[in-house]
Amino acid sequence: MNLILMGAPGAGKGTQAERIQARYGIPAVSTGEILRGAISAGTELGKTAKSFMDAGQLVPDEIVIGIIKEHLASDACKNGFILDGFPRSIPQAEALEALGVKIDVVLSIEVPDEKIVERMSGRRVCPKCGASYHTAYIPPKTADICDKCGNGLIIRPDDKPETVLNRLFTFHAQTEPLKVFYAERGLLRTVVGQEKVEDTTALVFAALEQA
Ligand code: ADP
Ligand code: ZN
After folding, report:
1. For a pocket test of ligand 1, which of 29, 58, 172 has the largest count of ligand atoms closer than 8 A to its C-beta?
2. Which of 49, 88, 150, 163 could be 35's S-S partner, Cβ–Cβ 3.0 to 4.6 Å?
3. Which of 156, 160, 179, 189 is catalytic?
4. CATH numbers and ranges of domains, the chain
């Protein structure tokens, strides 16, 4: 299954991508994770990306399209993949089509803006393995420590309230039009993001399994 996960920043794409990956055995490719990896590695790509990310803007299309091209060509994606955070603009979606990548389902996780702002304030992430937590909704077993790798958890620099508002603005302006783009192609399915992660996961699996 070749899947695209869509949704506002903080809608829970990354968390649901982990659940889908575990159930279907297909890898999640997160452009946000890859870009954050480049930032911590201090590469040229990372330096370029950081200024856009810290401002809550999209990293230029050419850059993320290049990243995706490379990842989708890898062996790991041969039997399917989950795109988490790509495409995020119409030109990116067109580039994906131009690459001849066949998409089976585009799943949009819908969460109202007010909820997003509340969720982002509690988000904590593991800078080492990328796992994502929430102080109230998905707490780690030990406060501020990653369950998966034991590393300390951090607040993402782009989760500051001002940046969150910019990211929401960017989402509505550039990413949300993709819903129409994919609805026209008969690929769009939507689920409403629930308070509890497991409840959203159940809706996600049901949406993926519907014929
Ligand atoms: P979220 O979905 O919570 O905003 P991500 O980790 O997916 O978090 O993305 C973080 C940031 O990385 C975005 O705000 C943007 O600056 C950059 N980014 C990620 N994916 C893309 C993409 N496909 N195109 C452009 N920029 C991207
Ligand atoms: Zn970790």
Report:
1. 58
2. 49
3. 156
4. 2-26+79-210 (3.40.50.300)
